[in-house]
Amino acid sequence: MSHTAMVALRPFTTVRSAANKPPPQKPETKTQKFDKKGQRQSDSSAATNSSNNLGFGKKKKEPLWQCIQNCGACCKLDKGPTFPSPEEIFDDPSDIQEYKSLIGPDGWCIHYEKVTRKCSIYADRPCFCRVEPDIFETLYGIDKKRFNKEACSCCIDTIKAVYGSKSAELNNFNQAIWNTSSK
Ligand code: SF4
Ligand code: SF4
Predict the structure, then answer these.
(1) Quick one: which of 174, 177, 180 has its CA closest to 23?
(2) Neighbouring-strand partners of residue 59
(3) 0.85 surpassed by pTM
(4) Where is the composition biased (Low complexity) (predicted)?
(5) What is the pLDDT of residues 44-72, one digit of tens each?
């Protein structure tokens, strides 16, 4: 569940392994690409598909996705050429059009309030701004069982792209998802 007024993701290029290890372990940096159905185009992250079962009945801890305060990274809608274009993200032309219509001259969403780091139309934000299992499944073909892991990875990727890999925002996010992680 989101705890802040801004949630929007572009979950197709994700830094996978950072969400699979609790801090302060150094995350790996391998980048994965996804097609429109959320399937990996390359297969360099065996860990992502591996079972969480460590044997002897023990389960690995998993981060639990949550949106954090004072982030808003996903509201920077144009993150440059290394991120997929709206055409690569969405199948529906109306989603592409709506997404593009929100991009301001500086790449941030026109509804994003930089001072407060909040969405000014939160209650009425587009569906692609909502980080929810149903939305991930409908828009990106990501199975509900994969939602938590994918959402964590997407946020990490997005926060790194916008604020940097050593940013306070990334540290705060990692702390949040691991402090509430599954036992
Ligand atoms: S990048 Fe993630 S944590 Fe940051 S505002 Fe967006 S949904 Fe929330
Ligand atoms: S409408 Fe804009 S500011 Fe609001 S959540 Fe979506 S991208 Fe962020």
Answers:
(1) 174
(2) 53
(3) no
(4) 42-53
(5) 333 333 344 455 666 778 899 999 999 99
In a domain, 4, yes or no: no
Closest ligand to the CA of 4: 1
Q: Whose CA is nearest to atom 6 of ligand 2?
A: 129
Q: Is residue 55 part of a domain?
A: no
Question: Structurally, how many domains does the chain consist of?
Answer: 1
For residue 56, what are the contacts with CB-CB under 8 A and spacing of at least 6?
A: none
Determine the structural domain holding residue 22 and report its residue range: 13-40+62-179
The residue whose C-alpha atom lies closest to atom 1 belonging to ligand 2 is 125
90, part of any domain: yes
- Do the domain assignments include residue 124? yes
The preferred substitution site among 66, 68, 135, 162 for testing ligand 1, maximizing ligand atoms within 8 Å of CB, is: 68
Distance 115 CA to ligand 1 centre (A): 16
Q: pLDDT tier at 106 (50, 70, 90 boundaries)?
A: very high
pLDDT of residue 61: 81
Mean pLDDT value across residues 157-178: 96
Q: Is the pLDDT score of 35 beyond 70? A: no
Distance, CA of 127 to CA of 104 (rounded, Å)? 19
